[in-house]
Amino acid sequence: MAYIPSHALAGLRNYRYKGVDKSILSNYVLNPFWTWFVTLWPTWVAPNVITLSGLAIVLFNFASLSYYDPTYLTEKGGATGPPNWLYFTWGIGLFMYQTLDAIDGKQARRTGMQGPLGEMFDHGCDALNTTVEVVLAAYALNLGRSWWTFGSQVATLANFYLTTWEEYHTGQIYLSVFSGPVEGILMIVTIFMITGFYGPSFWDQKILTFTRLENVEWIASRVPNLAINTSFMIFAGVGLGFNIVTSYINVFIARRASGGPVVKPLLYLLPFPVSVLLHVAWLNHPTLRNSDIINSPAFVPFLCAWGLQFAHVVGQMILAHITSQPFPLWDSMYIWTIVGAIDANMPILFGRPPLIQHNPENTEKFVFVVLAVAFVTYARFVVLVISDITNYLGIACLTVRKKDARGVWRSALPPKSSEKRV
């Protein structure tokens, strides 16, 4: 089955990337650095290779966690984790990912390879990186296997879904004064660096005690003295609320300007909270309170399976945007979450034990099956979409080439005079 219907392929030629970046840090600090850094790359390097290199770096970071703590044994206040120097590599790796993710578009313009394929490739890698960084950041914050880690996954994926939803309805990407791809990533880099210096237990300190504000009676009597990592999670929740409001304002303005409905787009947000509720129901296993997913080595695979499912969902949203197709309200990957949630709650729904997850071992096996299916499904999506786009537009994915009118592959590099003007 093709993901792009034949009648929608023509929309690929009409696609044009549009973006608004209001970040002061991005415009005045990082962008000059990115503009210089892209010149270090030869013009024969395809922009998607740069994007893929960034993803490879963060996947290596994830692999290093798997090496030092293969079963994710460290829980809050629990076992000793990896050596502190490893957190520095995570911070450096994430900063390199941000840099490479920022310059791939610049490289595309240098090589004449800008287009819808780059949009799909870039956002696909971003979707995968989102879950990887949730796992690593929660580990560095000493949250361990907990509902706080699950909550951070919810908030992070929600922001990504919101941004994709906003782009679909406005036709462009908005980066606010404080955005996830810029300030959010740098905040996580800072977390990794602090953890490298002081260790994960640093984040268990009470925030008022650490800041010495507990000595200020007016503050101490009104503000709860929460752990620093818990306070960070609450801050992330407030940030999500702010992003929801600002994203809808942008959609409202764009839809009103185009004469379209301003309330209907809100309905397209519903699939995400529904999927969150399904995952909560699945995690809240009523018959295995002491051996549920959160308290087992299956917790990280559970998050990864959800991350791959999510990448498939937003991938189809982005594909609908660049091909001018209807917004996808349903994705086949939801089926596995529905099955997991219903089976886990069979005692409540039907008064009988789960058919599949009736013991901890089966629960873990089922989670790994869902992870495998999600991986294969998303890999298939990536291969088919890349094949459809490259074949229709006559371009290559990982090399700087295009097909001429006779179907012969030729370099897509602009003339040297054009390169000098970049």
Low-confidence stretches: 417-422
Coarse morphology: globular
Number of alpha- plus pi-helical segments? 17
Number of domains: 1
Mean pLDDT across the residues is 88
Q: In what order do the strands lie side by side in the largest sheet?
A: 1-2
**Helix-strand pattern, N to C?**
HEHHHHHEHHHHHHHHHHEEH
**What is the distance, rounded to the nearest whole angstrom, between the alpha carbons of the first and last residues?**
41 Å
- How much helix is in the residues? 55-70%
Percent strand equals under 5%
Largest sheet: 2 strands, parallel
- What is the number of strand segments? 4
Transmembrane segments: 44-65, 173-198, 232-254, 266-283, 298-320, 332-350, 366-386
GO molecular function, one term: diacylglycerol cholinephosphotransferase activity
Organism: Lactarius akahatsu
Pathway: Phospholipid metabolism; phosphatidylcholine biosynthesis; phosphatidylcholine from phosphocholine: step 2/2
Please tell me about this protein's structure:
With 422 residues, this protein is mainly alpha-helical. The chain has one domain. Helices cover 64% and strands 3% of the residues. The strands form 2 sheets. Strands 1-2 form a two-stranded parallel ribbon. A two-stranded antiparallel sheet has the order 3-4. Strand 3 and strand 4 form a beta hairpin. The radius of gyration is 23 Å and the shape is globular. The C terminus is likely disordered.
